């Protein structure tokens, strides 16, 4: 079997995935050489991937220090939720009534969220709750909105780490379930209203005073270590 080609896009996708699962935390140091060694690529390729992520607001470079996972400001956190409040309800408003296959996929996703919550699997829970919004955009068939939701969801994960206390995830899982059932009933207006309420509930938990209590740790090697080939899909 040939070895998969590692591109700057694949490196960037792996870093974003690690943000969505809350493995990479705001302020985490991203050593170019460490990443290059892990993926067995040149530092030039890693730098290109990091520069791409910098343009999307996920990483930042500090003069004479290096690359770090971005730490969005409180104002940027508020702006992110304001953007989501425009994008996501509008996405549902124009959705029409989803096909049964789409509803099946969304309900399966919600069931996986519940399982992760019940099992106390923090990594899977973080990923699935964020990924629901990406999955919804995918199911509605708009690839541009899907790309936008990847960025908004990853940014929201960073924001949650900095400015939000941990709460019962089941509440947000229930919100997701209610949105899907409204779509299943063909009640797009209710789905839109439920999404607005969901985003407002998330935004209401922003607390600028929490940022000083968070501490970034450099766990890059264990986070990004390539999966064993025997377990790869």
What's the topology here?
Layout: H1 8-20, E1 29-30, H2 32-39, H3 43-55, E2 59-62, E3 66-69, H4 74-93, H5 100-119, H6 122-139, H7 143-163, H8 169-184, H9 188-203, H10 220-224
Antiparallel strand pairs: 1-3, 2-3
Helix pairs in contact: 1-3, 1-7, 2-3, 4-7, 4-9, 5-6, 5-8, 6-7, 8-9
Cα gyration radius (Å): 18 Å
| N-to-C order of helices and strands | HEHHEEHHHHHHH
Structural class: mainly alpha
Strand order of the largest sheet: 1-3-2
CATH homologous superfamily name of the largest domain? GntR ligand-binding domain-like
Shape: globular
> What share of residues is helical?
55-70%
Largest sheet: 3 strands, antiparallel
E-strand count = 3
Structural commentary:
The chain is mainly alpha-helical and 233 residues long. The chain folds into 2 domains: 8-71, Orthogonal Bundle (Arc Repressor Mutant, subunit A); 74-207, GntR ligand-binding domain-like (Four Helix Bundle (Hemerythrin (Met), subunit A)), CATH 1.20.120. It is 64% helix and 4% strand. The chain has a 3-stranded antiparallel sheet with strand order 1-3-2. The relative contact order is 0.16. Mean pLDDT is 88; it is low at 213-218 and 229-233. It holds the Pfam family GntR. Residues 5-72 form the HTH gntR-type domain.
């Amino acid at each position: 079997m040939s070895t998969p080609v590692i591109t700057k896009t694949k490196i960037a996708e792996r870093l974003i995935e690690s943000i969505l699962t809350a493995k990479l935390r705001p302020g985490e140091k991203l050593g170019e050489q460490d990443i290059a060694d892990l993926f067995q690529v040149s530092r030039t390729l890693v730098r290109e991937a990091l520069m791409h992520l910098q343009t999307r607001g996920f990483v930042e470079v500090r003069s004479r220090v290096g690359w770090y996972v971005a730490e969005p400001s409180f104002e940027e956190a508020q702006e992110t939720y304001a953007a989501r409040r425009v994008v996501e309800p509008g996405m549902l408003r124009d959705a029409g009534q989803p096909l049964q296959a789409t509803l099946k996929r969304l309900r399966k996703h919600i069931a996986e969220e519940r399982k992760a919550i019940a099992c106390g699997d923090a990594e899977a829970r973080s990923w699935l709750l964020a990924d629901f919004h990406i999955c919804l955009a995918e199911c509605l068939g708009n690839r541009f909105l899907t790309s936008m939701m990847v960025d908004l969801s990853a940014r929201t994960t960073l924001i949650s780490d900095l400015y939000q206390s941990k709460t019962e995830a089941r509440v947000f899982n229930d919100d997701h379930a209610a949105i899907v059932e409204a779509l299943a009933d063909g009640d797009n207006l209710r789905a839109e209203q439920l999404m607005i309420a969901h985003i407002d509930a998330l935004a209401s938990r922003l607390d600028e005073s929490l940022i000083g209590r968070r501490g970034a740790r450099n766990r890059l090697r264990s986070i990004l270590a390539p999966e064993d080939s025997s377990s790869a899909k």
